[in-house]
Write a structure and sequence with these properties.
There is one protein chain. The chain has helices at 23-36, 48-51, 59-76, 92-101, 107-112, 114-123, 131-134, 136-146, 159-176, 217-225, 246-254, 258-270, 275-301, 304-333, and strands at 10-15, 41-46, 83-87, 151-153, 185-187. The chain is mostly helical. The two termini are 29 Å apart. Helices cover 54% and strands 7% of the residues. The strands form two sheets. A three-stranded parallel beta sheet has the order 1-2-3. Helix 8 (136-146) packs across helix 9.
């Protein structure tokens, strides 16, 4: 008996395994993945090959963090029975699709991609841009189309990458004369990028301003205490600014009691609430959020063989899916076949 066809929309998402995940990942994508995995067919890609585009000098960093990120996925509630977790470098069809797609995009178009331009400036590459980094949008296009995903959750700054994917899709479809690949919609989270605890940049492992999902109670406490607030709010009686105040930004992102947060904002603006009171409430919120995640993570990290087996099974399932797309595209392009 044939298995029933899964008609749910296909989502592709993932992370570059360059370190354990943090609260920025959680609010930006992880909690949405947990919510969507039952209503969508979701593939979760550990993008270790793409991580090498700016970590080629330290491949061991990427290798050792594959399992760390997998632990984080399971700890936040990703269900491997509902979400296929897979390893990018173990899916050879993705590399071949990338090579094919490079023939349908120009260097000039890649250099004009706003996301890539910003990242090049941020990293100070100037003209010494690793070719793999410049071609990152093509690699991502290969990932998305290989799974025939039509929904890709990304931050607003990543939307140009989805646009470029769709350009490649349209170019290939015109080339073969039919719709063989699908365009994808960017799913932008309601909460944008979470600022770092210093308030000066996005939360980032490399900036040292992130709160990891595995953070201990003491790490959480210290991070909240050093959070940027309103520099002019010197005492509780001074009227304070909520806008740009990192503590309130975090409360907006994580606190479930919206009425209480709104009340605190009113009192803070009037000069009726001190920074420490707001920070104590945020600490309570984050401690309650991260405690069960931390406990589950410890349990999974204590059984790496089980997690590795889940990753192996998911990758085998993903390999079947991606190779089917590659075979279909090769046939449509009329490439020479030996069999």
């Amino acid at each position: 008996m044939s298995s029933p066809i899964d008609s749910r929309p296909v989502i592709l998402t993932g992370d570059r395994p360059t370190g354990p995940l943090h609260l920025g990942h959680y609010v930006g994508s992880l909690r949405n993945r947990v919510a969507l995995q039952h209503s969508h067919r979701q593939y979760l890609l550990l993008a270790d090959t793409q991580a090498l585009t700016d970590n080629a000098d330290d491949p061991d960093r990427v290798r050792r963090n594959v399992m760390e990120v997998a632990f984080d996925y399971l700890a936040v509630g990703i269900d491997p029975a509902e979400t296929t977790i897979c390893l990018q470098s173990a899916l050879p069809a993705l590399a071949e699709l990338t090579l094919l797609y490079l023939n349908f995009v120009t260097v000039g178009r890649l250099e004009r991609n706003p996301t890539i331009k910003t990242e090049i400036q941020f990293r100070g590459f100037e003209r010494d841009i690793p070719a793999g980094f410049l071609c990152y949008p093509v690699s991502q296009a290969a990932d998305i189309t290989a799974f025939k995903a039509t929904i890709v959750p990304v931050g607003e700054d990543q939307a140009p990458l989805i646009e470029q994917t769709n350009e490649i899709v349209r170019r290939l479809n015109r080339q073969v004369g039919r719709e063989i690949l699908f365009e994808a919609d960017a799913m932008i989270p309601a909460v944008g990028r979470l600022p770092g605890v210093d308030g000066k940049a996005k939360m980032s492992k490399s900036q040292g301003n992130a709160i990891p999902l595995s953070a201990s109670p003491d790490v959480i406490r210290q991070a909240v205490r050093r959070m940027y607030t309103d520099p002019d709010h010197l005492c509780a009686a001074d009227p304070g600014k909520v806008e740009g105040n990192v503590v309130f930004t975090y409360l907006d992102a994580f606190a479930e009691n919206r009425d209480l947060v709104d009340e605190m904002k009113v009192r803070y603006r009037k000069g009726e609430l001190g920074d420490m009171a707001v920070k104590r409430h945020l600490e309570d919120v984050l401690q309650a959020l991260l405690a069960p995640i931390r406990e589950r993570r410890v349990r999974y990290a204590g059984d790496p063989g089980y997690v590795l087996d889940l990753l192996r099974q998911g990758t085998l399932k993903a390999r079947e899916r991606t190779e089917a797309t590659l075979d279909e595209l090769r046939a449509a392009l009329g490439l020479f076949r030996l069999t």
